[in-house]
Amino acid sequence: MPTARSTPPDQPPVHFQHEGILSPGQIAAARLSRGGPVLGYFQPVEIKAPLGVSVALAEGAQFGPLQPAPVRVGLLIGPVYRLRVTNIPRHPGEEVYPTIEVIDRLYTPMGQEARFAIPIQLHQEDLELALEGKLVTRVIYVEDPQRALPVAAEAINGENWFEVGPGRDPLAVADQLGRPVAIVRLGGRVPLDPEHPEPEFMGPPAPYERLPARMRVLQPPPRKPAAAKEAGR
Amino acid sequence: MNALSPRFRSAPARNGPLPIGWLGVAGSVLGLGMMLVVLCSCQSGPCVLGGSGAGAGSVAGSPGALPSDSGSLGGEAGLSASGPGFWAGGAGGWAGAPRRLVAVSAPAASPGLPPEAFWQPSGWPAPGGGVWAVVPDPQTGQPVPAPAPLGAYGPWQPPGFSPPWPDDEYLRDGGDQGLPAGVSPDWQVQGLETEDTIAHYDTPDGQRRVEPSNRVYLYSPRFGSVRQVSNLVANEGREGWANVYLPTKLTQHQFQQPPRSHKQHLALGRYHTPQTPVQYLGRWSRDVISSALGPQSFQDRFLPFEDFQIIRLGQMENSEREALARWVQAAVVWAKDDTLAVLLNEKQAAAVVQDESLVQLYVVHEPPANPKLRLVKVASTAYAEPGDVVDFTLRFDNVGNQPIQNVTILDNLSGRLEYVPDSAQCSVQARFTAEPNEAGSELLRWELAEPLQPGQGGIIRFRCRVR
Q1: Among A186, A87, A179, A93, which residue's Cα sits nearest to residue A134?
Q2: Do strands A118-121 and A42-48 pair parallel, antiparallel, or not at all (unpaired)?
Q3: pLDDT tens-digit profile of A156-175?
Q4: Which of chain B's residues have a Cβ under 8 Å away from the Cβ of A107?
Q5: What is the mean pLDDT of residues B175-187?
Q6: Cβ–Cβ gap A140/B223 under 8 Å
Q7: CB contact under 8 A, A21 and B235
Q8: Which of A23, A135, A141 sits opposite B243 (nearest CB)?
Q9: Cα(A100)–Cα(A137) distance, rounded to whole angstroms?
Q10: Do the chains contact at A150 and B467, CB–CB below 8 Å?
Q11: I need a labelling partner for A113 at 20 to 30 A (CA). Which of A99, A209, B54, B402 fits?
């Protein structure tokens, strides 16, 4: 019986026949060519950033309104989405323009799509490296539960990540650790005029879905024991 | 993995000769050969006792499964129809689809579906005048009847894959995967992998048996990332946007996107009667009714997700099967071969029906001694994010006809589940221990202090936090 990992040899279920340094959009385009229910699907994505950071997505030839992070949107698999990140802590007046390329989707049970979104974490260190002129490539993957580290999510600040050196391919490493679903690239060129960026910088326009902000149900305060309550009376 | 099983009683006492009382019970069951008299009134048609009551003819009109479909028993996908977005039809993938035919209503009953969902192939007459949805078999390429409409029972999944899919987005707990678990004479449990949940017990005739629970699935994907920092100058030529336009032609994909994007959102058909009721009926026995357990031994009363007869009383209710299947992927864990079989003069009842007689007198031989433990596991939710707390409930019942002793229940937690300290409860007297396991979590163990009589059972609760 075929399993989730067994596909014809000519189409292995991995991405590392490509390189992570390919131009933005090429890896997602290859994923579309492999078929499956990925065409036209808006994959929920949650863009997280340090407190105070505002994010805007490209809407046509301009950026949309700035929204405080985290921002939840539905992105298509294939296009490259350009972001505008401002209000970076300790860097007033500076901006970073990362790109997000969704290369695979989640198969969330019906009704839970918006709850389980792909987290796009814009770390403070990554933003500062981009401001210094470095190119930061971050490949987000779904962990294999059989090989997941037995650590709580709070202990790793909500995300477990690894660093690879310049000589290695981050996409290949992510493929070994799980299933890559998105690529974030920070650094690189900036628009000549942020208010009116040139079309070459923005790239082809791509639609996205605006999703409502995440609501977290808070736990009720602990109830006092009945004995203490009686004693208080 | 080998796990030492420390006992709170000395091992020689458990390995020694059986008590006289046990031998007496076994002898009374085996030796007496108690004869039962059953009055059966059959006016027309075959009468089947102890069977599933459905055959191949049940595929038309109402969903049915062949009695020989043993692949749906005790497997991880046996009750997959009502799960969170899974196919109906049971385990085994589409390669065995001819054994898992599911009736399909006429297209008019499901408006709004694409016409190709009801394409009628030549040479495949639909039973009962219905219409089949047809997909090609991934191995042979031949059309195979399948549950229809396509994708009506949940999110898309490729043909030939067993739910839940994809497996990297689900947490599993329960069952006995990999090497089958076993218990050595020195009480070492072997073959207990991570995520396994089993119970082992001793029978009156000195055998030591292992019974796995069903598997529970939680949708809880966790993400990681791989970062690479490189000098921008070195990648300047490759990262230029101009490369995107010329070789890759991104705009081609964008113009192809809108027309067919709605096919995957068809979901109404999920509420079609997805499962065959005979999968439950065939496994009822007269001894599964346990004594009612008083909730006073728990800190709380029964929780909302435990509101099933099989959890409260150990009694399977047909009306609860769909709701139960939402929390349990395979509630039936004992093999069909072990189901109590009723023989009528050493023949099946269907072979002795006569039209001229309204009442028949049958002599039934009681089946031989069959000690059996049933272990059912449910979870409080089917979706969990890192940090969420999930309640698990284990219901164990002695569904055999002999008392069993030295009952020990083991749950080897996954590395993504963290046991909440002091959250374990048991409705009967038991010794509980939690020790670290190789996955970085804990191995939970309950050792029941008293033997379980036929019909007796209990409930175990514990709580885990998703990492």
Answers
A1: A186
A2: parallel
A3: 666 788 888 888 888 888 88
A4: 85, 155-157, 165-166, 169
A5: 85
A6: yes
A7: yes
A8: A23
A9: 10
A10: yes
A11: A99
Q: Bigger pLDDT: B75 or A62?
A: A62
The two tokens of residue B409 are 């229940």
Q: Do A116 and B385 touch (CB under 8 A)?
A: yes
Q: Nearest-CA neighbor of B328 among B311, B345, B341?
A: B311
> Quick one: pLDDT at residue A120?
92
Question: Do B394 and B199 form a contact (C-beta atoms < 8 A)?
Answer: no
Taking the model in full, what pTM does it have? Answer: 0.58
Q: Between residues 154 and 193 of chain B, which touch chain A (CB distance below 8 Å)?
A: 154-158, 160-162, 165-172
Residue B389 and residue B458 in contact, taking contact as beta carbons nearer than 8 Å: no
3-class SS of residue B326: helix
Amino acid, res. A91: H
Interface test with B, best of A48, A75, A77, A110 (most B CBs within 10 A): A110
Q: Rounded to whole angstroms, how far apart are CA atoms A18 and B24?
A: 71
Q: For B298-306, which contacts have Cβ atoms below 8 Å and span 24 or more sequence positions? A: B298/B425, B298/B427, B298/B459, B298/B461, B299/B425, B303/B380, B303/B391, B303/B393, B303/B461, B304/B380, B305/B378, B305/B379, B305/B380, B305/B381, B305/B391, B305/B393, B306/B378, B306/B393, B306/B459
The answer to which of A112-126, A187-201, A211-225, B328-342 has the lowest mean pLDDT is B328-342
> What number of other Cβ atoms are within 10 A of residue B223's Cβ?
25
A134 reaches B (C-beta below 8 A): yes
CB neighbourhood size of A193 (10 A) = 8
Which residues 144-163 of A have a C-beta within 8 angstroms of B? 144-146, 148-154, 158-163
Q: What is the least distance, in Å, from the CA of B342 to any CA of chain A?
A: 36
| CA gyration radius, chain A | 20
Closest-CA distance, A24 to chain B, in angstroms, reads 7
Apex CA B283: angle with CA B340 and CA B317, to 5°?
A: 130
**Which residues of chain B make contact with A160, given a CB cutoff of 8 A?**
222-225
Residue A184 has pLDDT above 90, yes or no: yes
Give the whole-angstrom CA distance, residue B353 versus residue B356: 9
Whether residue A96 has pLDDT greater than 90 = yes
What is the band of B139 on the pLDDT scale with cuts at 50, 70, 90?
low
A30 three-class SS: helix
Mean pLDDT (chain A) is: 80
- Are the C-beta atoms of residues B275 and B321 closer than 8 Å to each other? yes
Tens digit of each residue's pLDDT (9 = 90 or more) over B202-221: 888 888 888 888 888 888 88
For residue B23, the model assigns a pLDDT of: 37
Query: Smallest CA–CA separation between B90 and chain A, in Å?
Result: 14
Low-confidence winner among B24-38, B197-211, B387-401 (lowest mean pLDDT)? B24-38
Portion of chain B with pLDDT greater than 90, in percent: 6
Interface of B with A in 24-63 (CB under 8 A): none
Token look-up 């991880």 returns B76
DSSP symbol at A226: H
Query: Is residue B62 over pLDDT 50?
Result: no
